[in-house]
């Protein structure tokens, strides 16, 4: 069945870096766009970034632009989120989600999320 | 960037109909998608492209989009529908995604 599984979360100090991974199975990963979405404790969903199927088009939300980088390895069916210069306000559960269609305008399959806590 | 406005909470009795709105100027020009999220779980897509349902989503879930308001309608509400609901749109170029603030649906 179609599945997404995030990993790499943990506790990290402000200013440090962390890399999250999202491993896909059950579908042709290279044919789909992929999103990162986060949810701070007790808050709503916040879009973080999207990487289109073509590996060339990658876009970011305003709050992470310049600090976070998304990459994907289609040979490993894996999406990455490289988070630098982490801030306390980056504390959240991070979900990856599949984005069907050429522009990945929606999210039809979600992982269970991985928790990131930024604290000194 | 723009904002999608949802009511923080909606309450409905079992068997009744719940309507959750998502407001933005001229939202009808965009495709609106809706997600259901239960506590401790990942979101689930329940309506996409304004009014289409993914496979496995009950027909009780429907959507509409007109003018400045998109609406998720849940008919014959059951206790299991209690959850947070989020609307979402994307820019026409696909380079920016926005979620509404979410609506907590309470089944009385």
Report on this model:
- With 120 residues, chain A is mainly beta.
- Chain A has no helices and eleven strands.
- In chain A, strands 2, 4, 5, 6, 9, 10 and 11 form a seven-stranded mixed sheet that branches. Chain A has a four-stranded antiparallel sheet with strand order 1-3-8-7, with no helix packed on it.
- In chain A, a hairpin with a 6-residue loop joins strand 5 (45-51) and strand 6 (58-60).
- The model of chain A has no long low-confidence stretch (mean pLDDT 96).
- Chain B has no helices and nine strands.
- Chain B has strands spanning 9-12, 18-23, 33-37, 44-47, 61-66, 69-74, 83-90, 97-99, 103-107.
- Chain B starts with 8 loop residues before the first strand and ends with a strand.
- Chain A binds chain B through residues 35, 37, 44-47, 50, 52, 57, 59, 61-62, 95, 97, 102-108, 110-113, and chain B through 1, 31, 33, 35, 37, 41-45, 48-49, 54, 84, 86, 88, 90, 93-102.
Comma- or semicolon-separated keywords:
heterodimer; A: 120 residues; mainly beta; 4-stranded antiparallel sheet; 50% strand; B: 108 residues; 6-stranded mixed sheet; 3-stranded antiparallel sheet; globular
Shape of chain A: globular
Distance between the termini of chain A: 40 Å
- Biggest interface and which pair forms it? A-B, 25 and 27 residues
- Bin the helical content of chain A: under 10%
* Strand fraction of chain B: 35-45%
Computed over alpha carbons, the radius of gyration of chain A is 13 Å
SSE-based structural type of chain A: mainly beta
Question: How would you describe the shape of chain B?
Answer: globular
Report the total helices of chain A. 0
- The H-and-E topology of chain B, N to C, reads as EEEEEEEEE
Low-confidence stretches of chain B: none
- Using only CA atoms, what is the Rg of chain B? 13 Å
Instruction: Give, in order, the helices and strands of chain A.
Output: EEEEEEEEEEE
Characterize the main sheet of chain A. Answer: 7 strands, mixed
Mean pLDDT of chain B: 96
Approximate strand percentage of chain A: over 45%
């Amino acid at each position: 069945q179609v599945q997404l599984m995030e990993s790499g979360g943990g506790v990290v100090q402000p200013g440090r870096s962390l890399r999250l991974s999202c491993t896909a199975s059950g579908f042709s990963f290279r044919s789909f766009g992929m999103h990162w979405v986060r949810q701070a404790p007790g808050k709503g969903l916040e879009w973080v970034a999207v990487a289109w199927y073509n590996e060339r088009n990658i876009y970011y939300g305003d709050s992470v632009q310049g600090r976070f980088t998304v990459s994907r390895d289609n040979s490993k069916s894996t999406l990455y989120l490289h988070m630098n210069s982490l801030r306390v306000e980056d504390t959240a559960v991070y979900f990856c989600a599949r984005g069907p269609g050429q522009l990945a305008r929606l999210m039809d399959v979600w992982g269970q999320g991985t928790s990131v806590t930024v604290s000194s | 960037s723009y904002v999608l406005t949802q009511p923080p909470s909606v309450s409905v009795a079992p068997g009744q109909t719940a309507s959750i709105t998502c407001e933005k100027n001229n939202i009808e020009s965009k495709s609106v998608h809706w997600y259901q999220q239960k506590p401790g779980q990942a979101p689930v897509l329940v309506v996409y492209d304004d009014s289409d349902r993914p496979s496995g989503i009950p027909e009780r879930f429907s959507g509409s989009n007109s003018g400045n308001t998109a609406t998720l309608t849940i008919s014959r509400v059951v206790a299991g529908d209690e959850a947070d609901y989020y609307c979402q749109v994307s820019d026409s170029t696909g380079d920016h995604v926005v979620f509404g603030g979410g609506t907590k649906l309470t089944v009385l």
